[in-house]
Write the structure tokens for this entry.
Amino acid sequence: MTDKTSAPAVTPVVDVLCVGAGFSGLYAAHQVAEKGWTFAGFEAAPDVGGTWFWNTYPGARCDVESIYYSYSFSEELQQEWTWSERFAPQAEILSYIRHVADRFDLRRHFSFNTRVVAATWLPGERCWEVALDSGETRRGRFLLAGSGGLSTPKDFDVPGLENFTGTTVSTSRWNIPLSELAGKRVAVIGTGSSAVQCIPLIAEVAEHLTVFQRTPNYVFPARNAPLSTDVVDEIKSNYAAIREECRHSLGGIPDRIPDAAAFDVSDEERRERYEKAYERSGFTGVGGEFSDLLTDARANETAAEFMREKIRQIVRDPATAAVLEPRFHPLGAKRSCFGTDYYETFNRPNVSVVSLRDERLDTMTADSIVTEARSYEVDAIVLAIGFDAFTGPLYALNVSTPESGRLQDAWSEGVRTYLGIMTAGFPNFFMIGGPQSPALASNVVVTIEQAVDWITELIGHGRAGGVEVIEPTAEAQDDWVTITEDTVNQTLYATTDSWYRGSNVTGKPTTFLGYVGGVGKYRRMCTHLAKQGYPGVEFDGTAVARRIGRIDEEIA
Ligand code: N01
């Protein structure tokens, strides 16, 4: 007879485990709860928010308009929430996420201050077991990674930072008041989106700000402004239609389809059009004015040169302007930046820029940044050096199966996914806004909602048939990799080193980390596959069809 008191405790298995309580995890919790399934979420931070919890650097705000960069799943939510500005600041976006968590009672699904340190597939039990930093484990049938694409800060890849004894702060883990930089000699390293937003504000308080720039980027005026009551009312009365337009667009915001290629019009007309587009700004601004700007280098150069002229007009010192002029990549091929008074800031007497292309950054001492040309004494260093995008957050989960090993080993030659959502050899594992999905080049909230809806429908489809294990076939995954590569190879993204391709992290294999054919087309492909019973997916080892072929051409 078994002594019941000494029997080992059976670990309860929830339906869905999820990592992260940002936009992805919260929507996943909501949809899973709606289906009546059990859900256990884990969040390393003490509260909801994801990237908007951590990225609190001065000037942080989203450069996708808030009326679009927000959930669309609840008409009541979008009617009751009112955005104050075109591009809401970080604090307002975080308040919005907290409001969503409260309104839909989502916090109860999550353990906060809890990091998932490993996730292991147990083939015998047909479930995932996650190990938490508390030492506990939890089991679930399905594992969702809502860990974000830009949530693992990149390591600083120049030796010597540990020698520096002044203040060091990173934009992605900002933890000081701006006043702590007041009256100090501050260095900002990096000139991507984060740096572009914080540089003007740091310049206002610093005794001197030195910007260490490796690659000058194209920085458009953000043209942020308060949203008037009339505009808000207009949006709210048309919200359903606006959201639908976003879902079927290229980038998750309403499209502005260019009516001409750059050389279809005269030089004079092209210039006039760029001027108007420059006033409009945003992702449909200068870079979206002509149909071939992201596919034809000569066409692109007309827009790039227009921007360089703008920089020369704004920045009074010609030598400084020359350093800031982007010359090393086509406009838009690396993510464009949107700033407020960015170039104007370099007219301040207390701001200077160092080109790390002319003098390589060598090391740091206790009080200086040392380049191969000279040494710069500083009191504080702001690292705005970016993220180990997409794979960084996934690899930190140490996802593994006995057969395939760790995800990072399976992807050692580069990322391979099915729709950016699943990967062969890792059953019941789903990525929300994963690599090779449209997350990289879209309003990510649109991508997240679509992914969660598709994943939960797929799981529901499987469960309705009594299926326990869902996994893509290697052949369908090959097809998707081909589609993503062929799509990006038609564009100038493929020609440029950036975090888009993993080339910002030393040793990271170069795989383009997104699908750039548009969220609308991607949605049509996903819906088509669902309607066909999910070709390319195995249910308990049986596949409807092993391949998806050129589904992108079929539904074009
Ligand atoms: O990071 P980045 P980010 N020595 O990778 C430089 C989103 N985001 O945090 O280009 C010297 O773009 C690096 O130089 P280089 C958005 O999608 C959105 O700014 O590699 N410099 C580059 O200049 C964005 O694209 C918002 O030559 C070094 C910079 O650091 C993404 O997040 C706001 C270096 C890194 O730029 C990442 O943006 C913020 C080194 N060792 C972020 N290593 C909005 O919505 C790197 N750099 C507004």
